[in-house]
Amino acid sequence: MAIFDRDTRILVAENKDFRNIWLGETSAHFGGQLTSFLLPLIAVTYLHSDGTGVGLVSAVQFLPVVVLSLIAGVMVDRYPPRRTLVTASLAQGAALAALGAFQAADGLTFGQLVGAAAVIGVATVFYEVAYQSTLPRILPLGSIAAANGLHQATYSVSTLAGPSAAGFLVGRLGLSPALTVAAACSAGAVVSGLLLRGVKAPEQPRESALKAIGSGLRYTWSLRPIRDLCVQAGLSNLHEKAFLTIFLVFAVRGLDMSGTTVGVVIGIGSVGALLGSLCANRLTKRWAVGGVLALGAVLAALGLLLVPIVSHVGVFVAVLASVAMMLNGFGVALFNVFAVSLRQAIPPEHQIGAVTASYRLVALGTLPLGAVVGGALADALSPGTALWVVGLSYLVVSFWLTLSPLRGARTLEEAQRLGRTAEASRTEDTDRSPSA
Fold it and tell me: Residue 251: which CATH number?
């Protein structure tokens, strides 16, 4: 723990609820990162799918974000998070175990792979909304950035280890052992969720699910600080997923990389994310939170744009691509730490679940679209050309937050006041509007 700052060390040592939920999230993230790389890798290497098929497998894992995020937000605001965390982890583990059983019996089919990916995607939506909505309920405002920095650090380590482990397990031990490891990670998340006792849902007026969903959407979209975060996250994730889908096809078929090598290249990129998450809280001692947030988005785009550049060097392509991925990971971590912290700090407690779900709908709802677009571009153009198209487009949209009032917010408290001021202004304008 010495690599973390003092605030983070104190947080882990003294807050039992946070420690329990963080350990479960660590296990869930490792399993999730292993799985998200493993499933499309199975499509490429075992089932010999084309770019569109690979994109479909990736998209199905994220499609539930579009369909179920708002429902997950309502459930999280109404029920204790322990129930949601445990149920979601059990469902994900069962889907992975089923894939292993199918493979051991008669071999996997593409339909079975897509079906399991859908179940895993549904479970992930509910787990992530519950986790992110719980943090601001068990932590003071001053500890949220440190908690999200630690969360992003463990996420980065998982992203580093997950694809590498997936490539190694499939290449050396076979598919069934790889699926068994992923299922075991879900079991670890179940145990951690069971330990989270005493955290209750916030008290709020009872209303229908549809009304609660509408209220959350209106609140999220009417406040410019949260709306700007949603737009930047959605555009970034669309480009990230499209790029990685193309890169998987390009690396295997254009650069003749093995699945293990591709996993290592993508995984090493998470070293940058780990560095970014460790630096994030320290950077705000000198620079404004909003400025670091905007910088992170631009650095993430620049990192991916370097990948097609280094692919033409001809030597040490895997090493140079890893360095480019590290820059991307560093930027993504800076953005994520403060985007999540701002999203948790600005809304009142009874709106946290709804805002989390609405934000994730916009931010992560673009992932399936990105996967499909990436696969289609790889087939329609060529994987190499498609990397350039997506990389340049990503760089352009990464400057969105430089136009936002969030860019000038120096601290989370200042950003919270900015959001509350925007909320008061919105309420005042609504009150002045004539009745229908």
Answer: 1.20.1250.20
For 403-407, the CB contacts below 8 A with 24+ separation are 404/224, 404/225, 404/228, 404/232, 404/290, 404/294, 405/224, 405/225, 405/228, 406/225, 406/228, 406/229, 406/290, 406/293, 406/294, 406/342, 407/288, 407/290, 407/291, 407/293, 407/294
d(CA 237, CA 370): 8
C-alpha span between 310 and 187 (Å, rounded): 40
Q: Tell me how far CA of residue 74 lies from CA of 82, 136, 356, in angstroms.
A: 15, 17, 10
Q: Is 320 exposed, middle or buried (0-12, 13-18, 19+ CB in 10 A)?
A: middle
Task: Determine, yes or no, domain membership for 13.
Answer: yes
**pLDDT by 10-residue block (mean), the chain, 436 residues:** 56 68 78 79 76 76 74 74 82 84 77 85 84 74 71 71 72 75 81 70 59 70 78 88 84 72 74 78 72 85 85 73 85 82 71 72 78 84 86 89 74 66 54 42
Is the model's pTM score more than 0.70? no
Tell me the backbone φ, ψ of residue 198, rounded to 5 degrees: 85, -5
Which has the closest alpha carbon to 138: 22, 23, 15?
15
In which domain, by residue range, is 372 found?
6-193+208-430
Nearest to 179 by CA among 119, 114, 106, 116: 116
Instruction: Domain count for the chain, please give it.
Output: 1
